From TrEMBL:
InterPro entries linked: FTHF_cligase, FTHF_cligase-like_sf, NagB/RpiA_transferase-like
Catalytic activity: (6S)-5-formyl-5,6,7,8-tetrahydrofolate + ATP = (6R)-5,10-methenyltetrahydrofolate + ADP + phosphate
Source organism per UniProt: Desulfonema ishimotonii
EC top class named in words: ligase
Protein name stated in the entry: 5-formyltetrahydrofolate cyclo-ligase
Keyword annotations from UniProtKB, A to Z: ATP-binding, Ligase, Magnesium, Metal-binding, Nucleotide-binding
Length: 195
């Protein structure tokens, strides 16, 4: 297990370096392409209630995607994190500017005083963050397992989709028994359906 943890840690570091080596302009072009691919993706456009995420670190930035989703009359669901239990509560966000607060991870998340809980079975499509992926749908996340616990609770009909720079797709992600796969990865160059 320690060997897998070391490999994952090295991959996380490689991804952070790769992203930091891109110029702001290069990164912006890639993020815009990913956003366009997502908004051309039928499963996403047909979904009324998408689960999205507020990005951190080397994850694909999502603020523009969330803002644009509001203009498509989607019911936006974002996670609120519980650091003690390593769980998250899914909450409906009505106003991007007033419904968010800084959460325990230092990232904006729904303010429980303003946002209502959403039952997990109401989510039509789940956009799952990650730092590295392979074409089998393997993913490396932050290492805390929040999404590995969430994915099995999602309905089997809920598409699990990740966004990635093409450079974040590697030949093979080292997977452990508790690690969960995503169905589809949308990059700045293609849409990958898990093999």
């Amino acid at each position: 297990m320690d060997e897998i943890h070391e490999k994952k840690s090295a991959i996380r570091n490689d991804m952070a370096k790769m992203i930091s080596d891109l110029s702001a302009e290069q990164l912006e072009v890639k993020l815009r392409r990913i956003e366009e691919q997502l908004f051309e993706f039928a499963n996403f456009m047909e979904a009324k209630i998408p689960l999205l995420y507020m990005s951190q670190g080397s994850e694909v930035a999502t603020e523009s995607i969330i803002q644009r989703s509001f203009t498509h009359n989607k019911i936006i669901v974002l996670p609120a994190f519980n650091k003690e239990k390593y769980t998250m509560t899914l909450m409906k966000v009505d106003d991007f500017d007033t419904d968010l607060t800084t959460g325990p991870r230092g990232v904006a998340e729904p303010n429980p005083k303003k946002c209502k809980k959403v039952p997990i079975d109401k989510v039509d499509i789940a956009i799952i963050p990650g730092l590295a992926f392979d074409e089998k749908g393997g993913r490396i996340g932050s290492g805390l397992g929040y999404y590995d616990r969430l994915i099995p609770k999602l309905s089997v009909t809920t598409r699990k989709v990740s966004l990635a720079l093409e450079e974040q797709v590697i030949s093979q992600v080292p997977m452990e028994p508790h690690d969960k796969y995503v169905d589809i990865i949308i990059t700045d160059e293609r849409v990958i359906y898990k093999i």
